[in-house]
UniProtKB/TrEMBL annotation, chain A:
GO MF entry, a single one: phosphoenolpyruvate-glycerone phosphotransferase activity
EC number: 2.7.1.121
Segment forming the signal sequence: none
Protein task: Component of the dihydroxyacetone kinase complex, which is responsible for the phosphoenolpyruvate (PEP)-dependent phosphorylation of dihydroxyacetone. DhaM serves as the phosphoryl donor. Is phosphorylated by phosphoenolpyruvate in an EI- and HPr-dependent reaction, and a phosphorelay system on histidine residues finally leads to phosphoryl transfer to DhaL and dihydroxyacetone.
Every PTS EIIA type-4 domain range: 2-122
Superkingdom of the organism of origin: Bacteria
Classification via InterPro entries: DhaM, DhaM_N, PTS_EIIA_man-typ, PTS_EIIA_man-typ_sf
Reaction(s) the record says it catalyses: dihydroxyacetone + phosphoenolpyruvate = dihydroxyacetone phosphate + pyruvate
EC top class named in words: transferase
Subunit structure comment from the entry: Homodimer. The dihydroxyacetone kinase complex is composed of a homodimer of DhaM, a homodimer of DhaK and the subunit DhaL.
Name of the molecule in the record: phosphoenolpyruvate--glycerone phosphotransferase
Presence of keyword Glycosyltransferase: no
């Protein structure tokens, strides 16, 4: 499968916790996450996000995040990554869950994105 | 009257000193309309910048701006990391063609606007960067202009960042990012021979 998911949150535990929920419906979808700053504090880290992109076995990644500044670090990591990264301004948990279950079912990116549209909140 | 690696380092050291001195004040400004960590985040960032510049003195202006950017991007944590980081990355790029601070800050401001999606009037650092980049271009940067730009954010309704969740309730508070940006410009005025 060449489509994967990366979760980015300000809180290390949120970033680590959400994949547990996603794995229930998407055992085979490559899933990585980046949470907190380099020191493990509340915030996001471009380097950690970069690492999460690199560690993901997929070469095309759907990225979901919690709050605005995570998006900025995501965008910077996106510019530096050689992979194709898609960013979604959607409700984090609901949209990551939607994407994970659809990807597991082999749904195309176009159709996944169609289902993500109503979940746009930012 | 020109930007050099040496006075750039002095400028950044001055900025760093101000951020550390006013760390609690910056966090205090961030408490009613944000998450209360702007002072700590910025202090962590500028301290990393100083460490980077001390450990490896840059040979060229472009390298110096890049080192500043990378330290801020990796250490600040909040929104200010990518925003200040982008500002310095844009200056790094522009410094290949010019050492004119007006042009450098104009490029920085455009980068910040693009990264954060903010424009003038949104109660962000852009409300300081944009008018003061203009003043720098005209050679008219004064402390009074800096104060005015920072103060001006008080009556604005926040449209971007954490403060935007408060909407109208953000009125009456200075924007912390505008304040720290003000320090960056004040540090410039205090750096001899750079303007």
């Amino acid at each position: 499968m060449s489509l994967g998911i990366t979760i980015v949150s300000h809180v290390p535990e949120i970033a680590a916790g959400l994949p547990k929920l996603l794995k229930q419906v998407a055992a085979d979808v490559p899933l990585t996450y980046a949470g907190g700053t380099d020191d493990g504090d509340i915030g996001t880290s471009m380097e950690k996000i970069n690492q999460a992109f690199d560690d993901n076995s997929a070469d095309e990644i759907l990225a979901f995040y919690d709050l605005g500044s995570a998006k900025m670090n995501l965008e910077m990591a996106q510019e530096m990554s050689e992979k194709t990264i898609h960013l979604y301004d959607t409700a984090l948990i609901e949209s990551a869950y939607t994407a994970a279950s659809l990807l597991q079912a082999g749904v195309s990116l176009k159709d996944v994105e169609e289902q993500l549209k109503p979940l746009k909140v930012k | 009257m020109a930007l050099t690696v040496d006075n750039l380092i002095e400028w950044i050291n001055n900025f760093s000193q101000k951020v550390n001195e006013h760390k609690d004040y910056l966090s205090e400004l961030d408490t009613p309309i944000g998450d209360g960590d702007h002072g700590n985040n910025m202090a962590r960032g500028v301290n990393a910048v100083q460490e980077s510049l001390t450990n490896k003195k840059p040979a060229e202006l472009t390298d110096a701006f890049k080192q500043v950017a990378m330290a801020l991007i990796s250490k600040v944590g909040g929104a200010s990391g990518p925003l200040y980081g982008t500002a310095f990355l844009e200056m790094a790029k522009k410094s290949k063609d010019t050492t004119d601070l007006g042009e450098l800050f104009t490029a920085a401001n455009e980068g910040v606007k693009k990264r954060g999606g903010a424009k003038v009037g949104d109660k962000t650092m852009v409300d300081v960067f944009e008018p003061l980049a203009e003043k720098l271009t005209q050679g008219l940067l004064e402390q009074s202009e800096i104060d005015e730009a920072v103060e001006g954010t008080k009556d604005l309704v926040a449209k971007k960042g954490r403060a935007s969740y408060l909407g109208e309730r953000s009125v009456g508070h200075l924007d912390p990012g505008a304040m720290s940006s003000g320090y960056l410009f004040s540090a410039l005025i205090e750096t001899e021979g750079i303007l």
